[in-house]
Specification:
Elements lengths: L46 E3 L29 H5 L3 E3 L6 E3 L5 H13 L35 H21 L14 E5 L3 H7 L15 E5 L4 H8 L5 H12 L4 E2 L38 E3 L5 E3 L15 E3 L7 E2 L3 E5 L5
Parallel strand pairs: 7-10
Antiparallel strand pairs: 1-5, 2-3, 3-11, 4-11, 5-6, 7-8, 8-9
InterPro entries: CTDL_fold (IPR016187), Sulfatase_Mod_Factor_Kinase (IPR051043), SUMF_dom (IPR005532), SUMF_sf (IPR042095)
Pfam families: FGE-sulfatase
Organism: Hymenobacter glaciei
Length: 345
């Protein structure tokens, strides 16, 4: 859905809509499979959170957010906003962080590109036993849900591949820059964030447990998304019953913490898996789901940040840590990206 600045942002996320291009690499898809419309209720139309006009206590606080003074950046001017798909500026040295967790569809595109180049896909398979539900990776319903069930090594391999792909695309358009010794040659670093970088993105310096002064936020559920919520929750109730129960619930004018975690609520909001990567309002960096949804791998091996859909709200704070020892149904990731021209003097 579209968030708004502060607790929200007034623009749609760069990868929110199914299309022909990857949100993480900018590559054109190799087949029509991922460019065609899914026969599924649009994820971004399932839940609508309140606007600032109705909920002014949720105003923006950008005191800890990097100002976009491009002339002062140490990175390649203009490359980050143009050549780094889905990246949000995090630091003046040009580091950007993904606006959302890496989604299943991006992992599918990764596999698609590797297969086209003759690579064995066995290493890129999510671990079936570590998926939230059996068809989590194969069913297009979950395309825009975070990829989970992968290892630390697999996530690192994805980031490394992604950096090479973006750099190759940037260098194709620069005279002489395909030559790795040319002054214009662009190098793109793509990796997991450190714990310090992740906490910076979560606005931990504010000293607020959830990085924002937003309390519970009013929201409304779309009754026409009954089938969507039936699948997401794993409910055995009929679509007709869920639709009626949604309408009744909306009449109570509900409010909740906009974090996908194990919190009280009606059965149709239960999460049998992580949810839509662009679900809910953003933080003041315009980042989605840093807290809850999928806990996120960081460079510090075996540590995940932010809590997950199976964790209570108290375990989904900006400083929360959890541990994992291998592929897990609750752990995903997002990447840090940075472009430099190391040969330029």
């Amino acid at each position: 859905m579209v968030g708004l600045s502060g607790c929200y942002t007034p623009r749609p996320p760069s990868g929110a809509f199914p299309g022909l291009y990857s949100a993480t690499t900018g590559l054109l898809n190799l087949t029509r499979e991922y460019g065609a419309s899914r026969d599924i209720f649009d994820d971004d139309k399932a839940i609508r959170y309140s606007t600032p006009a109705r909920f002014p206590a949720c105003g923006a606080d950008t005191s800890f957010v990097v100002k976009l003074d491009w002339a002062a950046f140490k990175s390649v001017p203009g490359v980050l906003p143009i050549g780094m798909p889905a990246a949000i500026v995090l630091a003046r040295d040009g580091r950007g962080i993904d606006e959302s967790e890496v989604a299943n569809i991006e992992w599918k595109r990764y596999r698609q590109q590797l297969e086209a180049n003759g690579f064995d896909l066995l290493y890129t398979n999510p671990t079936a036993e570590a998926l939230p539900v059996a068809d989590y990776f194969t069913n297009p319903y979950y395309d825009y849900f975070p990829v989970v069930g992968i290892s630390y090594e697999q996530a690192n391999a994805f980031c490394l591949w992604r950096g090479h792909v973006i750099a190759n695309a940037l260098n194709r358009d620069k005279l002489g820059s395909p030559d790795s010794m040319a002054a214009a040659h662009v190098v793109v670093e793509c990796r997991l964030p450190t714990e310090a970088e992740w906490e910076q993105a979560a606005l931990a310096k504010r000293g607020l447990p959830y990085g924002s002064k937003c309390p519970e936020i009013p929201f409304e559920i779309n009754p026409e998304a009954a089938a969507y919520f039936k699948k997401r929750s794993g409910s055995v109730a009929s679509e007709q019953q869920i639709r009626a129960d949604i309408r009744a619930y909306n009449r109570t004018r509900p409010a909740r913490f906009p974090i996908n975690c194990d919190q009280s609520g009606p059965y149709f909001l239960h999460l049998a898996s992580p949810a839509y990567v662009y679900d809910g309002p953003t933080n003041d960096y315009r980042l989605y789901n840093l807290l809850g949804n999928a806990a996120e791998m960081i460079q510090e091996r075996g540590i995940a940040k932010g809590g997950s859909y199976r964790d209570p709200l108290a375990a989904c704070t900006v400083t929360s840590r959890s541990t994992y020892s291998g592929p897990s149904p609750t752990v995903g990731f997002r990447c840090i990206t940075k472009a430099t021209q190391p040969n330029r003097k």
